Amino acid sequence: MNEELINAIKITIADHYALYHKAHGYHWNVEGADFEEYHSLFGKIYEDTIVDIDDMGENIRKLGAYAPFKMTRFSELTTVPETEVASDCNSMTVDLLAAVELVIVSNLAAYRAAESAGEVGISNFHQDRDGMLKKWRWQLRASCC
């Protein structure tokens, strides 16, 4: 087992789960004149993220380890802080953008660990994920008031 790679994926799965949780909560609670636009954007982010969380868990299992699943474990592993945010779209967008920036960092670490370990499929997965995260970063930056 490659512990460095497994640990890197565990951190990025926890970070993705935190991003999913924020985006989903913001999707439910956003208010304001631009409600529909932000409700839709936040929905697209959480829907995209949940699919890849499943793949990350399966990649951990492919490496012979158990994927984290307890909320307390995700909380211990994540680099994405919990925040109290008002229901306005600007506050939510700024906070979600900060979360995406942190997830990009942890995903890159998982990519590099997979490359180093010669795990081509896992490396490709994280490379593709990088592209999607950077798309969300761009769209959130473009949406900030």
Distance between the termini: 46 Å
Question: So what's the overall shape?
Answer: elongated
Under CATH, the topology can be stated as Ferritin
Q: Which percent band covers the strand fraction?
A: under 5%
List the helices and strands and how they pair.
Blueprint: H1 3-29, H2 35-62, H3 71-77, H4 89-117, H5 120-143
Can you characterise this structure?
The chain has 145 residues and is mainly alpha-helical. The protein has one domain: Ferritin. Helix content is 79%, strand content 0%. It contains 5 helices and no strands. Helix 1 packs antiparallel against helix 2, helix 1 packs across helix 3 and helix 1 runs antiparallel to helix 4. The radius of gyration is 15 Å and the shape is elongated. The model has no long low-confidence stretch (mean pLDDT 96).
Give a nutshell description of this structure.
This protein is an all-alpha fold and 145 residues long.
Highlighted features:
145 residues, mainly alpha, Ferritin, 5 helices, 79% helix, elongated
